[in-house]
């Protein structure tokens, strides 16, 4: 009579191989989920920053008869102000490219905006990884 207690080496290796394959699949799914979460989080942050810039421009457009927008090409930053453009638009996390004009957008360095006319704005934000977020809109006074 043969009394079998425990597992053979082949059975043990088969179980270890199956567990290794399952853990590899789970790790791959988790890693992909983590990368997608980071990408979506960055996009959401860029969206919030763009909304802040456009909201500031809209506020100036609706509350002032005229104002200034200045774009610093070397620093990739934009400024806004009533008498002079000295308030930073947005934050310093992203490089910014902004084009404004009526009715079509053009690259600017320092431009006085008349609030009585609709203003076309084209905004591009770029993060450190090179991801871009672009938005184009028209701001007008009601």
From TrEMBL:
Major localization listed first in the record, in broad terms: other
PROSITE patterns, per the entry: PROKAR_NTER_METHYL
Pfam families (alphabetical): N_methyl (PF07963)
Family matches, as InterPro entries: N_methyl_site (IPR012902), Pilin-like (IPR045584)
SUPFAM superfamilies: Pili subunits
Keywords: Competence, Membrane, Transmembrane, Transmembrane helix
Organism superkingdom: Bacteria
Annotated transmembrane regions: 12-33
Localization terms from the record: Cell surface
NCBIfam families per UniProt: IV_pilin_GFxxxE (TIGR02532)
The protein, known as: Type II secretion system protein
Species the sequence originates in: Mesobacillus jeotgali
Lineage: Bacteria, Bacillati, Bacillota, Bacilli, Bacillales
């Amino acid at each position: 009579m043969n009394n079998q207690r425990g597992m053979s080496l082949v059975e043990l290796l088969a179980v270890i191989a199956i567990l290794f394959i399952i853990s590899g699949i789970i790790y791959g799914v988790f890693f992909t989920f983590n990368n997608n979460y980071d990408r979506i989080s960055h996009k959401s942050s860029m969206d919030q920053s763009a909304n802040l810039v456009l909201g500031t421009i809209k506020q100036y457009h609706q509350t002032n008869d005229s104002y200034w927008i200045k774009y610093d090409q070397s620093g990739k930053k934009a400024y806004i102000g009533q008498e002079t453009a000295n308030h930073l638009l947005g934050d310093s996390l992203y490089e910014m490219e902004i084009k404004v004009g009526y009715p079509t957008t053009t690259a600017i360095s320092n431009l006085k905006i008349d609030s009585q006319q609709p203003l076309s704005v084209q905004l591009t934000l770029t993060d450190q990884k090179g991801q871009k977020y672009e938005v184009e809109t028209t701001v007008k006074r009601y």
